Amino acid sequence: MDFAKVAAKRLGAVVVLLLTLSVLTYALLALAPGGPEEALLGDRASTPETRAAIRALYHLDEPFPVRYWEWLTGALSGDFGSSIYFRQPVLSVIGDRLPVTTTLAGFAILLTLAVGIPAGLAAGLRRSGVLDQGITFSTLVALAFPPFGIALVLLYTFGVALQWVPIYGSDQISNYVLPATALAMGQTAIVIRQTRAAALDVGGQDYVTFAKARGLPRLRIWGSYSLRNAALPVLTVAGLLAAGNLTGAVFVEQAFSLPGLGSLLIQAVNQKDIPLVQALVLLGGAVVIAVNLLVDLAYMVVDPRVRHGASTRAEA
């Protein structure tokens, strides 16, 4: 099996996954009680003719297979339709919100890795010591609080009481300090624990023991021998967290009133805005798939054994 066949197989799996995701999402929205016309009209009085006209305008009176096929053929050509609620092209609505979520997600993952990896390595190097116990206890505390609760505490303490940072807005980098911190705290604890476990596992390997017996400095042992081997599980966790930041920062965006994709998804679901929900769900699925692919590529860069194994399978 050569690389072309492997790539084709993976591409086929991606297509099937996204297609299944789109069918399930469209079906669940279609089967849910209520409809977009009720969300658009709200509490205003309306006649059956008015509701029928709205349904006809957005082709909601057509059978489910027909509606889905029309949406699918348009999506394959790059046209995801128009938002029922915003009355704008779906891609335009998402494009307006995307920079907010990407900035928040990027800031949060940088904080997570900048704090989590050094702290996890420090705890692993000093197993059962005071530093290790303190870091481990801190991770338990961070994991015990949900991001939404952390967001409220940070919002009141640093935004309201101390007034160190702004509590609303999305046009300055300072607006993302508290949201990114709230999002990163629990994730940092996960990275710390994963890095610590990987460091402990690598620290017990024979080549590390031999390097210590040769009298090599600890910094060189961990920098040249151990860090790359301990990086593989950390890369996996970091990739999952990065994808989660882009697709699941709903509660943090809600707490800080950030107009990102998370708050947009909640609004779209409440309004039964089927084209917008479809595009957001597919975007989330594509992000998860892309991040997993990047993690696989990073494996080959970090660990030569993975690269050699992939080449051997391709030649077989």
Automatic annotation (TrEMBL):
Question: Per the similarity annotation, which family is this?
Answer: Belongs to the binding-protein-dependent transport system permease family.
Biological processes per GO annotation: transmembrane transport
Record's subcellular location: Cell membrane
**Protein's UniProt name:** ABC transporter permease
The UniProt record lists the ABC transmembrane type-1 domain at 98-295
* Transmembrane segment boundaries: 12-32, 104-125, 137-161, 173-192, 230-256, 276-302
What Gene Ontology cellular component terms go with this record?
Answer: plasma membrane
Q: Which organism is it from?
A: Streptosporangium minutum
- Any matching Pfam family: BPD_transp_1_N
> Do you know which InterPro entries this protein is assigned to?
BPD_transp_1_N, MetI-like, MetI-like_sf
